[in-house]
Amino acid sequence: DIDPDIICMAKGLGGMGTPMAMNLIKPEVDEYWAPGEHTGTFRGQSLSFVAGKEALTYFDNDDLMQQVRQKAETMYQTLAPLEERFEQIQVRGKGMIIGLDVTTGERAKAIVDECFKAGLLIASCGTGGRVVKLIPPLTIPEDDLQAGLEVLVNTTQKVMEEAA
Prior knowledge:
This protein has about 160 residues and is α+β, with helices and mostly antiparallel strands. It has helices spanning about 45-55, 65-85, 105-115, 140-164; strands at about 5-10, 20-25, 90-95, 95-100, 125, 130-135. β3 (about 90-95) and β4 (about 95-100) form a beta hairpin.
């Protein structure tokens, strides 16, 4: 039941990593600023606006979000056996943003390091660095997602078995 007057958005709006931010403002509130008056750290530039406009076309229909839901389901199904096998692991998240809580920062660091050696770049976060975070691009090809998950699962199993 939230009905904001202003929504500030940034980060991936520019598409392909170009900086762009924008404010969505209700017309009845947008009476004080002249066009272009509100600027900030991520001031727009032509490439960002073109890329951002193109990125928004992904939402012309529900295809992208259906693909995201399917990829998220793949991720959860692939990681679920780790949670079932190791009581120290908890899988949680929303959509394709998933955290693999492995209880300690030392375990998470070992997983991150071993994944790096195997060609998968991931990071940890959370209290004491105990959560291995997965935030793949929404448009990741299915084969790349499967390959990354395979490295993560194999590495996590190895680290957890060595820690036991």
